[in-house]
Amino acid sequence: MSIVYEFMTLLLLFSSGSMIGWSIEVFYRRFKPDNKERVWINPGYLCGPCLPLYGFGLTLLYLLALVEDHIGIDNDILRKAVLFTIMAVAMTLIELIAGEIFIIRRHLKLWDYTNMRFNYKGIICLRFSVYWALLGAVYYFLIHPRILNGLEWFSHNLLFSFVIGMFYGILIIDLSYSFKLTAKIKAFAEENEMIIRYEELKKYIRMTVAERREKYRFLKAFESEGSLMDHLREYMEKQLEQARSGKINDFIEKHRPL
Q: Measured between alpha carbons, how far is 123 from 119 in angstroms, rounded to an integer?
């Protein structure tokens, strides 16, 4: 049964990381410098309070911390430095893979580091790789030693199984809804040769709905009195204006208007 409990532990880590990461990103997006309007934006691909990227990240940090003893370095400080570097590289790879998949498969860019130095396609950058290393250190020293006993208790508790089951049931429903929604956005993006910045589109709809004094749904950001296709057409016009002005926009480079 230990394998079952270990698997349940990983499920708990993934769900906890997904929800905690979502909370962090909500506040980060609210107060980051380029959000001058200071609007609240629901981050990520899903509607609910869940960012799977962070779920994978926390699970990976947990697994990497367990294999520290297998790093063949006697010096404690150097060994930990290598461990945190490995954590940063692993987290950056998760970002890269997820970013590439969404760009290729869904014509979406869920985050954008284009304005930051040493970035690749706007989906990974040196600054955030350093952040991941720091996050790995914070996890290692402040979180990992304190959660092992808690994880053991939760993984053997019946109520825990119910909560985990409920989380993943809702996640499946959310994935189905979001997949259908982004299929429409993907079709529009392909037709107009765009890679749509998901957060920018959400922010545009949020601002448009506020100007029209319509009801805005934070979790279901694309549902308003206007149709999604109307919002997409208006958003494209804004992107055309930015392209003509030489500003960052969502049109694929080789097809940008002159």
A: 7
